Amino acid sequence: MYNNKTVSLKFGVDIVDIKVVPPNDNERILGIYININNKFKFTINKINRMLKYTCSNLKKKRITHDHVIYIINKVLIPRIEYLCQHFIILPYICNNFNRTIRSIYKSSLLLPRSIYNTIIHNQIYPNILNIWDHQFLSQTSLLNAQANNPLTKNLIEYLILYSQSRLWTNDIFFTTKYLDSPSKKLNRIENLLCIMHNYKLEFKFSFKFNTKEGSYPLSAFLIRSNQFFNFIKSLKNKDIFFLDQIITVDDNSIILNQNNLRLTFDVPVINRQNPTISHPKIIAQSSQITKIKNIWIAYWCPRNNDIIYGRVVEKQHFYNHHQTITFEHYVNISTSHPSSHNNMPRSRPNYLAKCSGCILSEQNIYNNNSSNSCYITTLSNYTFIINVSKSNLSFPNYRKPFYKCVCQHSTIKQTALIDFNLCTSPPVNSDSNIEDPIIYRSQLQQFIDLVSINFINKNLILQLVQPNSLHIPLLKLASSLALYTNLEFYTDGSLIRDDNIPTMGHGWIFSSDLNANITYSGASREWASSTKAELLAIITALIVCPPSSTITIHTDSNNCINTYNKLSSPKLTARRFQNINNCTLWNTLKYIISTLQLSVSFIKVKAHSGDILNDTADILAKEGSRSTEYITFNIQHIKNQRCHLTFHDGTVIDRNIRKSIKRIINFQYFERHLKHQNIHRIKDYALNNLIDWEFSQIWFKYNSLSKPTSEQYSKHVSWRIKSSSNNLPTLDILNRNYPDLLNNHETCFLCLTEKESNDHLWNCPRVLSLITPIFLEHYNKFKTLITSESESVYALYSDAITRNIIFKWARTRPPNQIIDIPDLHCLLMNFVPISLSYPFKAAKISKNKTKKLLLKFLFDLHKDIYETIWKARASAWKEFKKTHHITKKSFNNYRRDHNRDTNQNRRTRHRNNNLENSNGYHCPFNDSRRHLENNNLWIYLTSSNFLHNLPWISSLNEDLSQFHFNIYNNIFLLNI
């Protein structure tokens, strides 16, 4: 029943009234809001109200920056993530949301409104999350989980196919790469893939939907994003898909009529390029079904990995659909007829009999009868015609009638497989250097007898293991182990970080028959860890084991054993599995075990306990680390890993995706921060490796007070942030913001000669004379602190203290200006120079104790500097305001009055909103118009971090001098 308000639906014996929701109204389902038109305005407005309400209330309360950061990072942004999990918030909306939460952050730390966004969202400082960044990493992680989840993977495949149809392309990732920016016309997956290019990330899917007869889709060459779908509509109307369709043979001239810019010829119908076979004829589109007689077809079915025979009974070619055919299923008679016993197997005739029913049978009118026949419906263009004649022979166990094919079963099977590969494989250029698998196997046959190796082991090794040079050693091992059914291995891994590039070695020894002397060792890189090295040893041992065998692995890695046992736990969902370390390798392990049907058990061995076999495996692993051939696995062939994420140069991200992308974002913010013209000296110091970023990060968040959070602590943090970013309220900034109020007074309050600025403050001659006694006093404290805590001989680290450049100048001759001593300048700007942390390392003081001692020393030192320099300057500034009758209310009134004038100017000022066309892609990390496309620092740092697999802050200690001149030539100011 239906009326204007409800729809009555019957569930069993009950009738339930379902409320009818208007198209523009939203229905709340599991906490998110959805409407039939797929509009998200209601959710956006709800988030906007939530942010404004929360932030306005927070401003009225006396809370510290720690409270604000916690509420934003742990309450508001997770709430936004949940509400928006089914769509992408566009950049301009994210920027509006970010402005709201940034304002309360600045207010809690008493920071100026012009503070850089690269500080607010920078992990080096006390920071809040950027909504845009958090949305990207959460959506990327979600798509990866959905694509690898057995319950949702088919839906993702359909959405990818649907998007390819919308964008008129055969490679959605290639096409979205050239879209300017996310758009409301794109769906969630399309927008996400468009954003990923800015992070040098790419999803690799193990499935792909291809369109034949061309190489480059025209949609990839459409550069005007605002007209993109209009162009696509025009191409669809003209039935033009590939660039190859509208260019001449020499690939130069486009054949267009210059008067009307139309093609001078009709676009030819795309035909299959397989002249050796014939396909069923395509009938005209109609709503009618056409009956067919005496047409036999065959095709390769990937579902059961075999050829399918059939007699066509009807064709359907409905409007805007592909043609399908329904056929009666026939099977090959595997037993030979007595008249063919003398023939060779490949020369025996191919006889067909009716299938009485199989898993391929579908529900249709033919299968509803009682004839015990099997009928299947499939796409017409995936089949080809075969010649069949009726046979009078009879076969036991089969029902009449029988039919005989003109070609042998093996010939038709080979033809079907080739045709299937042509239909499903991507187009390959004629000059491609990809090796043909048949040619490659014939080359391997010259070195090893492939017939003696089990075909399952052979396929696994050839498909999964890379590079190809590792195939022969593994194939020989598989041949040597082919006769065993119960196998035992001792495995071990080795991690060497001595060089700049860490190397992992793996090795194992076959212990069931020591006389056979079967061992293996190898090396690998990327995401260096001892657990990964051990896991690679286990995988290389299992991949050469005979099918249906029992395996016992002796390993000293308790982590590998625990993770393997966790794989069978029902608590480990598909999404949680993608977050474990080395998830793609664990999927490879599961795939090998299931394919070979192995029974695997692990036994824990104590490391370095005198076990001869375990020590032998350890020696093999260390020998393997010296190899120059690094093993990797082709994840595209692993069925339960439908997609994986890669970075820049193909580095597979098999770690927690959120945390890995967070590292990329951190490095991007680091580079953006260094590009600020206002802190160009810090950029030079960073590129010359003068700053200890790990201790600097700890120092910016250090709390010396007994309370976990307080207003005084917030003031300390505020001072450190302002000092490090040259945002102290000096006269140059005050005159910029309040020119009429200060009457252009710019003279330094300390030296009374130079113009006061943040840069001048630490280079003022008066400041140098004031801090000299402070550094003399703290030099003695520094020396006493280290010598009292160190258990090493003083002579071994004395030079690190006595010749320390931070204190040496105070005991000898002061410099002309502070910038002549970069380490001292870093320290005064609240960065921790390496020269200050190195003496603790030279004295062999533990890292935890160093943190405690060094941070307390820094606090006392900066407290004296603050009270001596800034308080003296603040007293002079206070007298100046008193003399000129300037109060706090004066600044508030000035800001209030001049904000009105500013708003009026903004209304009349013409602003070019089409930033994409004028400046390239505008990445919405913050409001800056500075771009990273031509820079490589963050890419270099990320690649190094993924290689070494260390905390992201440790990668900032890399030698960055090579970037000093080639990437920072183009510096732009922040748009604030």
TrEMBL record:
Residues 483-626 form the RNase H type-1 domain. It comes from the Eukaryota. It holds the Pfam family RNase_H. Residues 895-904 have a biased composition (Basic and acidic residues). One of its GO terms (molecular function) is nucleic acid binding. Residues 895-920 are annotated as: Disordered. InterPro entries: RNaseH-like_sf (IPR012337), RNaseH_domain (IPR002156), RNaseH_sf (IPR036397). This is RNase H type-1 domain-containing protein.
